[in-house]
């Protein structure tokens, strides 16, 4: 995975010092990594480590599984791998979503959970176009 990121110009191309990075793996189902239905926990851990090594202040891992989140996170191995890599792991509460204006060229509003909004609110820097940097990253990655 590191080689793939290096081919894109290194992780520092995407991560700035002090960023709060939200990694959204696929933990939709209560499955083991060997079943290849969810994101491999080793990939999640490596991604979190690379973000932190590139200067991110904090790494967060979150998804909204179809089945019981706590069971899915543990069964998948992602909870253990992400916390061992230094990430904060959180479960998404569907009742905490709300529309967030992003003023994109096509998409004007996007329903986000409080964790994604908090990451954006903590990063008040702007892009050259004057848009919040975190929302720019959400649209362009």
Task: Explain what the structure shows.
- The chain has about 140 residues and is α/β, with parallel strands linked by helices.
- The protein folds into 2 domains: about 1-90, no CATH class; about 95-140, no CATH class.
- Helix content is about 35%, strand content about 15%.
- It contains 6 helices and 5 strands.
- A 3-stranded parallel β-sheet has the order 1-2-3, with helices on both faces. The protein has a two-stranded antiparallel sheet with strand order 4-5.
- The radius of gyration is 15 Å and the shape is globular.
- It starts with a helix and ends with a helix.
- The relative contact order is 0.17.
- Residues about 135-140 have low confidence and may be disordered.
The global form is globular
In total, how many beta strands?
5
Low-confidence stretches: 134-141
* Number of discrete helical segments: 6
Helix content: 25-40%
The value of Rg in angstroms is 15 Å
SSE succession: HEHEHHEEEHH
Strand arrangement in the largest pleated sheet: 1-2-3
Largest sheet: 3 strands, parallel
């Amino acid at each position: 995975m590191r080689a793939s990121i290096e081919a894109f110009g290194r992780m520092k191309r995407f991560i700035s010092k002090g960023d709060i990075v939200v990694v959204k793996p696929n933990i939709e189902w209560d499955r083991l990594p060997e079943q290849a239905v969810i994101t491999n926990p080793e990939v999640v851990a490596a991604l979190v480590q690379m973000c932190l090594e590139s200067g991110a202040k904090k790494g967060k891992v979150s998804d909204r599984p179809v089945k019981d989140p706590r069971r899915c996170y543990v069964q998948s191995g992602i909870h253990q791998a992400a916390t061992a890599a230094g990430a904060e792991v959180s479960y998404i509460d569907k009742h905490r979503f709300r529309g967030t204006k992003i003023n994109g060229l096509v998409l004007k509003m996007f329903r986000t959970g409080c964790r994604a909004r908090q990451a954006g609110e903590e990063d008040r820097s702007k892009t050259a176009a004057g848009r919040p940097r975190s929302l720019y990253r959400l649209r362009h990655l």
